[in-house]
Amino acid sequence: MKYVILNHKMNLTYEEIIDYVDKLKELKLTNINLITCPSSIYLSMFKDLNVACQNVSSFEKGSYTGELAAYQLKSLGIKYSLVGHSERRQYFNEDNLIVNKKIINLLKNDIKPILCIGETLEAKKLKKTGAVLIKQLRQALKDVSVDDLKKVIIAYEPVWSIGTGVIPSPNEIDEVVDYIKDTIYRTYNLEIPVLYGGSINDENISLLEKCKNIEGYLIGGASLDINKITNIINQI
Ligand code: PGA
Questions:
Q1: Which of ligand 1's atoms lies nearest the C-alpha of 223?
Q2: Whether residue 221 has its Cβ less than 6 Å from ligand 1
Q3: What are the residue numbers of the active site?
Q4: Shortest-distance atom of ligand 1 to CA 162
Q5: Mind listing the pLDDT tens digit for each residue in 57-92?
Q6: Taking the CB of residue 10, how many other CB atoms lie within 10 A of it?
Protein backbone atom coordinates (compact mmCIF):
# COMPACT_ATOMS: atom_id res chain seq x y z
CA MET A 1 0.00 0.00 0.00
CA LYS A 2 1.52 3.32 -1.08
CA TYR A 3 0.50 6.81 -0.03
CA VAL A 4 -0.30 9.31 -2.77
CA ILE A 5 -0.80 12.74 -1.26
CA LEU A 6 -2.20 15.51 -3.45
CA ASN A 7 -1.20 19.02 -2.37
CA HIS A 8 -3.35 21.62 -4.12
CA LYS A 9 -1.58 24.56 -2.44
CA MET A 10 -3.54 27.81 -3.12
CA ASN A 11 -5.28 26.66 -6.31
CA LEU A 12 -8.73 25.82 -7.76
CA THR A 13 -12.07 27.64 -7.59
CA TYR A 14 -15.24 26.32 -5.97
CA GLU A 15 -16.59 25.14 -9.35
CA GLU A 16 -13.33 23.43 -10.19
CA ILE A 17 -13.31 21.65 -6.84
CA ILE A 18 -16.87 20.35 -7.33
CA ASP A 19 -15.79 18.80 -10.63
CA TYR A 20 -12.52 17.55 -9.12
CA VAL A 21 -14.25 15.77 -6.22
CA ASP A 22 -16.69 14.05 -8.61
CA LYS A 23 -13.81 12.77 -10.74
CA LEU A 24 -11.72 11.79 -7.72
CA LYS A 25 -14.57 9.56 -6.52
CA GLU A 26 -14.48 7.67 -9.82
CA LEU A 27 -10.80 6.71 -9.53
CA LYS A 28 -10.15 3.01 -9.09
CA LEU A 29 -7.61 2.62 -6.33
CA THR A 30 -5.89 -0.63 -5.57
CA ASN A 31 -3.18 -0.59 -2.95
CA ILE A 32 -3.12 3.20 -2.85
CA ASN A 33 -3.99 5.43 0.08
CA LEU A 34 -4.99 8.62 -1.77
CA ILE A 35 -5.17 11.71 0.44
CA THR A 36 -6.04 15.17 -0.88
CA CYS A 37 -4.89 18.44 0.71
CA PRO A 38 -7.24 21.07 -0.75
CA SER A 39 -7.38 24.71 0.30
CA SER A 40 -8.92 24.59 3.76
CA ILE A 41 -12.16 26.34 2.69
CA TYR A 42 -12.97 23.20 0.65
CA LEU A 43 -12.10 20.58 3.28
CA SER A 44 -15.72 19.70 4.07
CA MET A 45 -16.39 18.97 0.37
CA PHE A 46 -14.12 15.92 0.69
CA LYS A 47 -16.28 14.31 3.38
CA ASP A 48 -16.35 10.79 1.94
CA LEU A 49 -12.71 10.91 0.80
CA ASN A 50 -9.37 10.86 2.58
CA VAL A 51 -8.40 14.43 3.23
CA ALA A 52 -5.55 16.33 4.88
CA CYS A 53 -5.02 19.92 5.88
CA GLN A 54 -2.13 21.83 4.27
CA ASN A 55 -1.27 23.55 7.52
CA VAL A 56 -2.36 23.93 11.15
CA SER A 57 -1.86 26.59 13.80
CA SER A 58 0.97 26.34 16.29
CA PHE A 59 -1.50 27.76 18.85
CA GLU A 60 -4.06 25.54 20.54
CA LYS A 61 -7.18 27.75 20.51
CA GLY A 62 -8.47 31.31 20.85
CA SER A 63 -7.82 34.80 19.49
CA TYR A 64 -5.59 34.05 16.50
CA THR A 65 -7.44 35.49 13.51
CA GLY A 66 -7.08 33.48 10.34
CA GLU A 67 -5.65 30.39 12.01
CA LEU A 68 -6.98 26.81 12.02
CA ALA A 69 -6.60 24.78 15.22
CA ALA A 70 -5.86 21.07 15.38
CA TYR A 71 -8.93 20.46 17.58
CA GLN A 72 -11.10 22.07 14.86
CA LEU A 73 -9.63 19.74 12.24
CA LYS A 74 -10.33 16.82 14.53
CA SER A 75 -13.96 17.96 14.89
CA LEU A 76 -14.26 17.73 11.08
CA GLY A 77 -12.93 14.17 11.16
CA ILE A 78 -9.64 15.10 9.49
CA LYS A 79 -6.97 12.48 10.06
CA TYR A 80 -3.83 14.03 8.50
CA SER A 81 -2.10 17.40 8.12
CA LEU A 82 0.97 18.56 6.26
CA VAL A 83 3.42 20.38 8.47
CA GLY A 84 6.68 22.18 7.76
CA HIS A 85 6.19 22.41 4.00
CA SER A 86 9.12 24.32 2.48
CA GLU A 87 6.75 27.04 1.20
CA ARG A 88 5.58 27.60 4.79
CA ARG A 89 9.21 27.75 5.90
CA GLN A 90 10.20 30.10 3.04
CA TYR A 91 7.25 32.53 2.83
CA PHE A 92 5.83 32.40 6.36
CA ASN A 93 9.06 32.17 8.35
CA GLU A 94 8.16 28.85 9.93
CA ASP A 95 11.14 27.42 11.74
CA ASN A 96 11.59 24.01 13.31
CA LEU A 97 10.38 25.32 16.68
CA ILE A 98 7.03 26.35 15.20
CA VAL A 99 6.85 23.10 13.24
CA ASN A 100 7.40 21.23 16.51
CA LYS A 101 4.52 23.07 18.22
CA LYS A 102 2.25 22.21 15.29
CA ILE A 103 3.23 18.54 15.46
CA ILE A 104 2.54 18.42 19.20
CA ASN A 105 -0.91 20.02 18.66
CA LEU A 106 -1.76 17.57 15.88
CA LEU A 107 -0.71 14.53 17.89
CA LYS A 108 -2.70 15.71 20.93
CA ASN A 109 -5.73 15.65 18.63
CA ASP A 110 -4.96 12.30 17.06
CA ILE A 111 -4.13 13.79 13.66
CA LYS A 112 -1.22 12.26 11.77
CA PRO A 113 1.44 14.87 10.88
CA ILE A 114 3.01 14.58 7.42
CA LEU A 115 6.30 16.26 8.24
CA CYS A 116 8.01 17.81 5.20
CA ILE A 117 11.78 18.05 5.32
CA GLY A 118 14.39 18.75 2.66
CA GLU A 119 17.56 20.59 1.81
CA THR A 120 18.02 23.70 -0.33
CA LEU A 121 20.18 23.63 -3.46
CA GLU A 122 22.84 25.58 -1.58
CA ALA A 123 22.94 23.01 1.23
CA LYS A 124 23.10 20.19 -1.33
CA LYS A 125 26.04 21.82 -3.11
CA LEU A 126 27.84 22.23 0.22
CA LYS A 127 27.16 18.52 0.94
CA LYS A 128 25.11 19.48 3.97
CA THR A 129 21.95 17.51 3.13
CA GLY A 130 22.42 15.08 6.03
CA ALA A 131 23.09 17.84 8.55
CA VAL A 132 20.02 19.83 7.42
CA LEU A 133 17.74 16.81 7.60
CA ILE A 134 19.01 15.71 11.02
CA LYS A 135 18.43 19.20 12.42
CA GLN A 136 14.93 19.38 10.93
CA LEU A 137 14.04 15.95 12.32
CA ARG A 138 15.55 16.49 15.76
CA GLN A 139 13.97 19.91 16.33
CA ALA A 140 10.59 19.17 14.72
CA LEU A 141 10.19 15.92 16.67
CA LYS A 142 11.41 17.22 20.03
CA ASP A 143 9.36 15.81 22.94
CA VAL A 144 7.37 13.50 20.67
CA SER A 145 7.00 10.12 22.40
CA VAL A 146 7.87 6.88 20.62
CA ASP A 147 4.18 5.94 20.67
CA ASP A 148 3.22 9.24 19.02
CA LEU A 149 6.04 8.96 16.54
CA LYS A 150 4.31 5.89 15.11
CA LYS A 151 1.66 8.29 13.77
CA VAL A 152 4.17 10.52 11.94
CA ILE A 153 4.81 10.30 8.20
CA ILE A 154 7.91 11.97 6.74
CA ALA A 155 7.87 13.57 3.29
CA TYR A 156 11.37 14.07 1.89
CA GLU A 157 11.04 17.05 -0.44
CA PRO A 158 14.31 18.56 -1.68
CA VAL A 159 13.56 22.29 -1.92
CA TRP A 160 15.41 22.48 -5.25
CA SER A 161 13.00 19.97 -6.73
CA ILE A 162 9.70 21.55 -5.67
CA GLY A 163 7.99 23.13 -8.67
CA THR A 164 11.22 23.15 -10.74
CA GLY A 165 10.77 20.08 -12.94
CA VAL A 166 14.09 18.71 -11.64
CA ILE A 167 14.06 15.45 -9.69
CA PRO A 168 16.83 13.52 -7.96
CA SER A 169 17.75 10.12 -9.39
CA PRO A 170 16.15 7.07 -7.73
CA ASN A 171 19.60 6.26 -6.28
CA GLU A 172 19.90 9.71 -4.75
CA ILE A 173 16.42 9.42 -3.24
CA ASP A 174 17.15 5.93 -1.87
CA GLU A 175 20.36 7.18 -0.29
CA VAL A 176 18.68 10.11 1.49
CA VAL A 177 15.61 8.10 2.49
CA ASP A 178 17.85 5.34 3.93
CA TYR A 179 19.64 8.03 5.89
CA ILE A 180 16.34 9.42 7.27
CA LYS A 181 15.09 5.95 8.18
CA ASP A 182 18.41 4.99 9.82
CA THR A 183 18.41 8.20 11.85
CA ILE A 184 14.87 7.55 13.12
CA TYR A 185 15.65 3.89 13.78
CA ARG A 186 18.83 4.64 15.70
CA THR A 187 17.11 7.29 17.82
CA TYR A 188 13.71 5.66 18.43
CA ASN A 189 14.12 2.03 17.39
CA LEU A 190 11.20 2.56 15.05
CA GLU A 191 10.47 2.44 11.35
CA ILE A 192 8.19 5.14 9.98
CA PRO A 193 6.95 5.78 6.42
CA VAL A 194 8.96 8.15 4.24
CA LEU A 195 7.49 9.64 1.06
CA TYR A 196 9.19 11.51 -1.77
CA GLY A 197 7.90 14.86 -3.10
CA GLY A 198 9.09 17.35 -5.72
CA SER A 199 8.11 17.77 -9.40
CA ILE A 200 6.39 14.39 -9.66
CA ASN A 201 4.33 13.99 -12.83
CA ASP A 202 2.91 11.28 -15.06
CA GLU A 203 6.11 11.22 -17.14
CA ASN A 204 8.66 10.70 -14.37
CA ILE A 205 6.63 8.48 -11.99
CA SER A 206 7.83 5.27 -13.67
CA LEU A 207 11.43 6.33 -12.97
CA LEU A 208 10.57 7.21 -9.36
CA GLU A 209 8.96 3.78 -8.97
CA LYS A 210 12.53 2.42 -9.14
CA CYS A 211 13.13 3.82 -5.64
CA LYS A 212 13.39 0.90 -3.25
CA ASN A 213 12.66 2.43 0.09
CA ILE A 214 9.79 4.94 -0.16
CA GLU A 215 6.21 4.44 0.97
CA GLY A 216 4.66 6.87 -1.48
CA TYR A 217 4.55 10.34 -3.00
CA LEU A 218 3.58 13.93 -2.27
CA ILE A 219 2.43 15.60 -5.47
CA GLY A 220 1.92 19.35 -5.96
CA GLY A 221 1.44 20.85 -9.44
CA ALA A 222 0.39 17.60 -11.17
CA SER A 223 -2.26 16.96 -8.51
CA LEU A 224 -4.45 19.71 -9.98
CA ASP A 225 -5.11 17.66 -13.11
CA ILE A 226 -7.21 14.52 -12.63
CA ASN A 227 -5.93 13.01 -15.90
CA LYS A 228 -2.36 13.30 -14.65
CA ILE A 229 -3.34 11.76 -11.31
CA THR A 230 -5.01 8.87 -13.14
CA ASN A 231 -1.89 8.32 -15.27
CA ILE A 232 0.32 8.46 -12.18
CA ILE A 233 -1.81 6.03 -10.21
CA ASN A 234 -1.92 3.59 -13.11
CA GLN A 235 1.89 3.41 -13.03
CA ILE A 236 2.24 2.79 -9.30
P1 PGA B 1 5.46 19.99 -6.92
O2 PGA B 1 5.16 20.29 -5.38
O3 PGA B 1 4.98 18.59 -7.20
O4 PGA B 1 4.65 21.03 -7.67
O5 PGA B 1 6.92 20.13 -7.12
C6 PGA B 1 5.38 19.31 -4.41
C7 PGA B 1 5.07 19.89 -3.06
O8 PGA B 1 5.28 21.09 -2.86
O9 PGA B 1 4.60 19.19 -2.15
A1: 3
A2: yes
A3: 85, 157
A4: 5
A5: 999 999 999 999 999 999 999 999 999 999 999 999
A6: 7
